[in-house]
Amino acid sequence: MPVSTTLDHVTIVAEDFQASRAVYDALLGCLGLAPTVDFEDPEGDSDDTNAVAAVGYSDAAGRLLLWLVAGTAATTGAHLALAVTEPALVRAVHATAREAGIPVVQAPRDWESDRLQYYGTQLSDPAGNRVEVLLRHPGRS
To answer: In this structure, which topology does domain 10-136 adopt according to CATH?
Structure first.
């Protein structure tokens, strides 16, 4: 029996929440994804009263796609790939990363191998997770 599924959301845990949030705000903002939900520390510890503990990024339709959560066991080594519809968006994210001092792992380029066939850039968040923005070549898989 065929199963139909779609990815609902991704969660990234950040040890340095504010530094990670700055990266995701900048990169995702270029793509029209905006922080729409902020959760504060539920314990209200005296050290971090009213500190944001999580932020959810949504698309224009209001779907929450990515959660950035504060925590001591940070997500590391993740690879988040975001598909766009225009090469200009790939270039815009790359330019934003360079201007903001976000590490660029791979400048925009064409990937022409048999299985890849896309144009994209890769960037890094403070924990070393990769954020890739790509455009699949039309008419190719």
So the answer is: 2,3-Dihydroxybiphenyl 1,2-Dioxygenase; domain 1 (3.10.180)
